[in-house]
């Protein structure tokens, strides 16, 4: 369907070398977009590129550093010829009780998950405005909605993602740039596999609450990525859409 056709479009996915980011990058590539994936590990970037169809650019970047984050966006736009789609996906978590965090750990999580999305969006804005429009997709979490004792900085960063999305959506709408957030549920990734090791009983509790009766897979995020990156969502902005198998609405 032409509404979802991304041929001629270009996309940058931060943290696109694994997990949810790779699942979204795969969907964008399959819809016809030229895709750049960015991450600190260039070996992992290269392996992910081989797993994708179509033209894939890899960028080594440390999004915690402003200069590297801005250079990442500019490199993607220059080498792909333009920048139509930005997926702010890169993220980390450090699981401790609130009183146990060092301030450096708090800053590392916030800088990786939230500040990088702000900086990358700033850098992408000029390229998208020049191109006549664009799409920014920010990745939140169930922790954008719920609280948990062991995710104080992560939850703060993901709650901030939703508010950042709303602010950017209002600011960028006149420039034909739509900004939306995706709130993944419990997806089977390296990050959540570590969570299951750290949090006793997490696997069983997730299955019990999720109406779909399973953990999500990274590929479950491909469709929402294509929708929010395509013409199909041109009048959708400022939203935060759960992709969670019903977890967030279960009683």
Our measurement of the CA-to-CA distance between the termini, rounded to an integer number of angstroms, reads 36 Å
Gyration radius over CA: 17 Å
| Strand/helix succession | EHEHEHEHEHEHHHE
If strands are numbered along the chain, what order do they take across the biggest sheet? Answer: 3-2-1-4-5-6-7
- What oligomeric state do the depicted chains represent? single chain
| Chain-averaged pLDDT | 96
List keywords for this structure.
globular, 8 helices, 7 strands, alpha/beta, 7-stranded parallel beta sheet, 45% helix, 251 residues
What is the topology?
Layout: E1 10-14, H1 19-30, E2 34-39, H2 42-51, E3 56-60, H3 66-80, E4 85-88, H4 103-131, E5 134-139, H5 152-172, E6 177-184, H6 190-198, H7 202-209, H8 222-229, E7 240-243
Parallel strand pairs: 1-2, 1-4, 2-3, 4-5, 5-6, 6-7
Helix pairs in contact: 1-8, 3-4, 4-5
Walk me through this protein's architecture:
This protein has helices spanning 19-30, 42-51, 66-80, 103-131, 152-172, 190-198, 202-209, 222-229; strands spanning 10-14, 34-39, 56-60, 85-88, 134-139, 177-184, 240-243. The chain is built from eight helices and seven strands. The mean pLDDT is 96. Strand 5, helix 5 and strand 6 (177-184) form a beta-alpha-beta unit. It is an alpha/beta fold and 251 residues long. The protein is globular, with a radius of gyration of 17 Å. The relative contact order is 0.16. The protein has a seven-stranded parallel beta sheet, sandwiched between helices.
